[in-house]
Design goal:
The protein is α/β, with parallel strands linked by helices and 306 residues long. The chain contains eight helices and twelve strands. β6, α4 and β7 form a beta-alpha-beta unit. The two termini are 27 Å apart. Bound molecules: glyoxylic acid.
Length: 306
């Protein structure tokens, strides 16, 4: 049984090697710089596909280092895909969402633009308790984000594909449910997985349905957002400000129009950071389960894509 640890970072690799040697000594480990036969590979632990999947004829399971797994769209259906559910990573994303909602409410992106123009322009904003945050995507991270924002005093609503019930949170479901939320949301937080249904969701019709001047916090995937549409919505102040952590091409190219969006704060995909130790232990736990003939934890439903 051989697993490809497809990572370039020597520090992470050292942690993974130590964990797997201890927890699943029967699994041989190879790294991209080693000479190995792709036919021997049963498991791959990676962020991106390690090349053409056809080169790995005996592959059984792909373990993703990330919570989002849209990058594995071309993985053949018979191969199991496991997403990363790391409490340390979730906590970091929650910290980011809370920070971003507060910064968005207090107009930090707008004031940063004003600062560049040396413009002193005080504005009054509603209190936290008068502000509704709507979370798109109520999965493992979205649900906890909703509860955290609620505990801070925001009014919270959320949208998910299938119906959810979260104490104190107005939950709506189904394809059209999102429109109901946009009517009242002051801040929209995108935590959706990227699927065929959600690709390009943050586009002109969506922005037009948002309350005039409502704000966007985007922590999903770059391809959710149509940047020229967001640019127009920010220009017209239909969207009051935006905080974006994810982009279709990362690192964001120097000439990308996103750098110049009005009233927009950009961060370089830093909302979460998977912890190497927890991540390694998660994969080791699943490898042990496989050895014992138990079903995998955190398996992606390939028909849904998350
Ligand atoms: C990061 O973007 C992740 O999906 O974990």
């Amino acid at each position: 049984m051989t697993m490809l640890l497809n990572f370039p970072d020597p520090e992470r690799l050292a942690i993974f090697r130590e964990i797997f040697a201890r927890e699943v000594p029967g699994v041989a480990l190879v790294t991209p710089n080693m000479d190995y036969a792709t036919e021997d590979i049963r498991y791959v632990f990676t962020w991106l596909p390690p090349g053409d999947w056809a080169a790995f004829p005996n592959l059984e399971v792909v373990f993703s280092i990330s919570a989002g797994v849209d990058q594995f769209k071309t993985l053949p259906q018979h191969i199991s895909l496991v997403k990363m559910v790391d409490p340390n990573n979730i906590q970091r994303v929650l910290d980011y969402v809370l920070t971003a909602c507060l910064a968005s409410l207090r107009l930090f992106p707008n004031f940063a633009d004003n600062q560049r123009r040396k413009t002193w322009e005080p504005r009054t904003v509603p209190a936290i308790s008068e502000t509704e945050v709507s979370i798109l995507g109520l999965g493992a991270i979205g649900e906890q984000a909703a509860l955290l924002l609620k505990s801070v005093g925001f009014q919270v609503s959320g949208w998910s594909r299938s119906p959810r019930n979260i104490d104190g949170v107005r939950c709506v479901a189904g394809h059209d449910g999102v429109h109901e939320l946009l009517e009242t949301a002051d801040i929209v937080v995108c935590l959706l997985p990227l699927t065929d249904e959600t690709r390009g969701i943050l586009s002109r019709p969506f922005f037009e349905q948002m309350k005039q001047g409502a704000n966007l916090v985007h922590v999903g995937r770059g391809a959710h957002c149509v940047i020229p549409d967001l640019a127009a919505a920010l220009e017209s102040c239909q969207v009051g400000n935006a905080i974006l952590d994810v982009f279709e091409t990362e690192p964001l190219p120097e000439d990308d129009p996103a750098w110049k969006l009005k009233n927009c704060l950009i961060t370089p995909h830093v909302a979460g950071r998977t912890d190497a130790r927890t991540a390694g232990m998660n994969v080791a736990t699943n490898l042990q389960r496989l050895q014992e003939g138990q079903p995998l934890l955190w398996q992606v439903d390939r028909s849904k894509g998350y």
